[in-house]
Amino acid sequence: MKKKVLVVHRADKLYYEFKNFCEQSENPVFRELEISYAKDTNAVRYGNFEKYVQKMEKEGPEWITPDPEILEKIADADVVLTEWGGFSSEVIAAGKQLKLIVTIRSSCENINVSYAQSQGVKVVYCPSRLAEVVGDMTIALMLSECRGIVRRNLVNTRGIWVEEKYNDESHAALCNLKIGLLGYGGVAKAVAKRLIHGFGCDMVYAYDQFLTPEDLARDGVTAASLEEICRICDIISLHLRYVPETENIIGREQFAMMKKNAIVINTARAGLLDEEALAEALQNGQIRGAGLDVYKVEPLPLDSPLLHMDNVTLMPHSAGITNDLIKNSVKLAVKIMEPLLKEIN
Asked: Which of 65, 160, 163, 234 lies at 20 to 30 Å from 13 by C-alpha?
């Protein structure tokens, strides 16, 4: 009997990417799957996808109103493949044959994991699925602030050629700067790879409580404490997971330690950075600049002081959004799914 996979997504792109992969696969584990699709309308009904994501990340999925189509189609599904679909206890309970939920996200706040496990349903996700694209954006923000790419863009200056306003030690080649990575997971590894092998950097430091100096040294990275990175680095890039222990890990105390030419980059989680303290440090010249992709309130309020500074590069939480995101995510998901599908009777 064929194993049944239900793809739940707000659009059908994930369904077609997964279906095409299975049809072209020579692996019978995938070729013999029976695949169906159910549209997740919760994000649409919520009205604003960014706010839907924020609510899901903070509160989990129990608040959603399940789609009747999903409740119907999940009844005989063995496996669910999703991204942001909300899987509350009600939705999971409707899956009478359900054995596995796979999300192509790098975490699974949108799934009631504890309830799923209590029902014997495994939940897996795709760690580091955004590592390469977010790594690219992180480097782009570093370059933008070091070289004044945004503030000196001829469109922004209306054709006037201007010299770099912040002509200090950080107005330099990346290979001549000390760069500190706070956290050393998938994205930080991708950033380090680009810095060391792409730009020839030999002064890359990392703070990660879960790795040994030897672990970091294998990648050409030097272990350092949070305080050491704040004191010696020209660029400090945040890559930690957001948990209570890391909330506002960079705040007034840390800004006070930093060099005047320091540039802070955050493509991870807004809660890692005290936004008010950052604005003060930038306004007072305590640090040189910042490159941000995430904010405490999104979209960034129009009265935010950050929007009135010339020493910041601000992106609209788009580091992980590329045209090939779903395709790349499916490639990661199937590697995780293969051994688990073999276990399903």
From this structure: 65
List the catalytic residue out of 10, 317, 338, 343: 317
317 is catalytic: yes
Q: How far is residue 332 from each of residues 169, 262, 329, measured CA to CA in Å?
A: 40, 36, 5
Q: Is 32 a catalytic residue?
A: no
CA 320, 326, 327, 328 dihedral sign is positive
Q: Is the Cβ–Cβ distance between 121 and 99 less than 8 Å? A: yes
Q: What are the residues whose beta carbons fall under 8 Å from the beta carbon of 32, sequence distance 6 or more?
A: 2, 3
Q: Quick check: is 269 catalytic?
A: yes
Which residue in 132, 169, 269, 280 is the catalytic one? Answer: 269
pTM, two decimals, is 0.86
Average confidence (pLDDT) per 10 residues, the chain, 345 residues: 94 96 96 96 88 90 96 98 97 98 94 98 93 97 97 94 94 98 97 98 97 98 98 98 95 98 97 98 97 94 96 96 93 95 90
With vertex at residue 141, the alpha carbon angle to CA 177 and CA 290, rounded to the nearest 5 degrees, is: 80
Residue 222: strand pairing partners: 205
Q: Which of 94, 97, 286, 273 is nearest to 182 (CA)?
A: 273
